[in-house]
UniProtKB/TrEMBL annotation:
Source species: Dokdonella fugitiva
Name this protein carries in UniProt: glutaryl-CoA dehydrogenase (ETF)
InterPro entries: Acyl-CoA_DH_CS, Acyl-CoA_Oxase/DH_mid-dom, Acyl-CoA_Oxase/DH_mid-dom_sf, AcylCo_DH-like_C, AcylCo_DH/oxidase_C, AcylCoA_DH/ox_N, AcylCoA_DH/ox_N_sf, AcylCoA_DH/oxidase_NM_dom_sf
Span of domain Acyl-CoA dehydrogenase/oxidase C-terminal: 238-384
One Gene Ontology MF term: fatty-acyl-CoA binding
Length: 390
C-alpha cells in the first residue's frame, strides 16, 4: 500500500497523541481563529487596535481562565488543552494570545491560587465571562529582569494599604478593570487587587509600537492609592507569588509561538508552490525546499517539547527550568521561521497582506517578555551546572 501523505504541519502525527477532548478544544479554537481573527487581524495590526469585540466570544468559548475549576465559571480544561488554546490563538496573532494569557494566567490564576475564597467568588466568574478584564503589574520602568529590585511599595495605614510606584509594559493596562499589582511591603513582596477608579491609580497607553500592535500596552501609576486590606492577596508573600504566575503564563507561551510559526510556514509554502521564477515554482528549487524542510523539523521538535511539558504539568511535576527550556527553544524557533518566511516572500513579505512580517514583529516582544531569551538560557545553565550566573 502507498504511504499516507503526512500533514506538513504535523509530521509526527502529534494530533493522534491528543485525547478526544483536547482535539475538540483545538478544533474549536482553530475555527474561531479562522473565522473571527484572521479576517480582521491584519487591519487591526495596521491601525494599532485590539479587537475588543472578540472578548465576549472568547469568553463564550471558555478561553478565559480555561484551566481553572468550573465552580468559578471556568472551563476546567487540562494543561495540554490550555496550551492548544494558546497555539491556535497565536496562529492568529500574538496580541490575541497575550490577551487571553494575561487574563488567565497572570490575573485569574493568582486570585485563584493566592486569593481568599471571597476574592475568588467575587472576581473569577466575572473574569471568565469577559465582564471584568485584568492586567498584571510586575515589570517596572527601570528594568524587568530583576523583579526583586522593585520600587513600588505598599505601606499599612490602619485597615488599608497606601500604594506608590509605577509599572511598565503592561498588557491590557488601559482595558483593565482590575490590576494584580506586586509591591514591596515591610513583610516582603505582596500582591494587591487594585481596582479601576481608585483615586491615584492611572493607566497610560504606550504608542508608537512596532510590535504587538493589535494589543493594548500600558504604563500604570500609583500615587498614594488607598487599597483595602480585603484587596490584598492573603496566601502568598515574597517573589514566589509573581514568579508562580509567570511560570503558568510562560507555559502557555511555549505553545503560542508554534501557532505563529505554523501560520508563517503554511502561507509561505503555498506561496512557494505558486511563485514562478525561471520557468518553475520556487518550491521546486533545492534552496527553498531545504529552508521549508528545516522549518518543518523545528516546528515538529517544538510540538513534541510542549506536548511533553503539558503532560508533565498535568501530572503536577512540571519544573520552572523545563518551562524555561521550552520558552527559549520555541520562541527562538518561531522568530527565526517568521524571518526566513519573510525572506522567501521577497518584496511581498514586507506588507501585512502576508502574515510573516506581522508575526516576526510580534515575536520580538514575545522573545523578550516574561523572561528574556538570555534569562531562560541562564536558568537552564544554572540547572545543568549548579552555579548561579545571574
Amino acid at each position: 500500500m502507498p504511504a499516507t501523505p503526512l500533514n506538513p504541519t504535523d509530521l509526527y502525527d502529534i494530533r493522534s497523541m491528543l485525547s478526544d477532548e483536547e482535539r475538540m478544544v483545538q478544533d474549536t479554537v482553530a475555527r474561531f481563529t479562522d473565522e473571527r481573527v484572521l479576517p480582521i487581524i491584519g487591519d487591526c495590526f495596521d491601525k494599532g487596535r485590539f479587537p475588543t469585540e472578540l472578548i465576549p466570544e472568547m469568553a463564550e468559548l471558555g478561553l478565559l481562565g480555561s484551566s481553572l475549576p468550573v465552580e468559578y465559571g471556568c472551563a476546567g480544561m487540562n494543561g495540554v488543552s490550555y496550551g492548544l488554546v494558546c497555539q491556535e490563538l497565536e496562529r492568529g496573532d500574538s496580541g490575541i494570545r497575550s490577551f487571553a494569557s494575561v487574563q488567565s494566567s497572570l490575573c485569574m490564576y493568582p486570585i485563584y491560587a493566592y486569593g481568599s475564597e471571597e476574592q475568588r467568588k467575587r472576581w473569577l466568574p466575572e473574569m471568565a465571562a469577559g465582564k471584568v478584564i485584568g492586567c498584571f503589574g510586575l515589570t517596572e520602568p527601570h528594568g524587568g529582569s530583576d523583579p526583586a529590585n522593585m520600587k513600588t511599595n505598599a505601606k499599612k495605614d490602619g485597615a488599608d494599604w497606601i500604594l506608590n510606584g509605577a509599572k511598565m509594559w503592561i498588557t491590557n493596562g488601559n482595558l483593565a478593570h482590575i490590576a494584580i499589582v506586586w509591591a514591596q511591603t515591610d513583610e516582603g513582596i505582596q500582591g494587591f487587587i487594585v481596582e479601576k477608579g481608585m483615586p491615584g491609580f492611572t493607566a497610560q497607553e504606550v504608542h508608537k509600537k512596532m510590535s504587538l500592535r493589535a494589543s493594548v500596552t500600558s504604563a500604570l501609576f500609583f500615587d498614594n492609592v488607598r487599597v483595602p486590606e480585603a484587596n490584598r492577596l492573603p496566601n502568598v508573600k515574597g517573589l514566589k507569588g509573581p514568579l508562580g504566575c509567570l511560570t503558568q503564563a510562560r507555559y502557555g507561551i511555549t505553545w503560542g509561538p508554534i501557532g505563529a510559526a505554523i501560520a508563517c510556514f503554511t502561507e509561505t509554502t503555498e506561496y512557494a508552490k505558486n511563485r514562478t521564477l525561471f520557468q518553475r515554482p520556487i518550491a521546486a528549487t533545492q534552496a527553498v525546499q531545504i529552508k521549508l524542510a528545516d522549518m518543518a523539523r523545528r516546528i515538529t521538535l517544538a510540538q513534541l517539547l510542549s506536548l511533553q511539558l503539558g503532560r508533565l504539568k498535568d501530572k503536577g511535576v512540571m519544573q520552572p527550568t523545563q518551562v524555561s527550556l521550552a520558552k527559549w527553544n520555541n520562541v527562538r524557533m518561531a522568530i527565526d521561521i517568521a524571518r526566513e518566511c519573510r525572506d522567501i516572500l521577497g518584496g511581498a513579505g514586507i506588507t501585512t497582506e502576508h502574515c510573516p512580517i506581522r508575526h516576526a514583529l510580534n515575536l520580538e516582544s514575545v522573545i523578550t517578555y516574561e523572561g528574556t531569551e538570555t534569562v531562560h538560557q541562564l536558568v537552564v545553565g544554572r540547572e545543568v551546572t549548579g552555579i548561579n550566573a545571574f
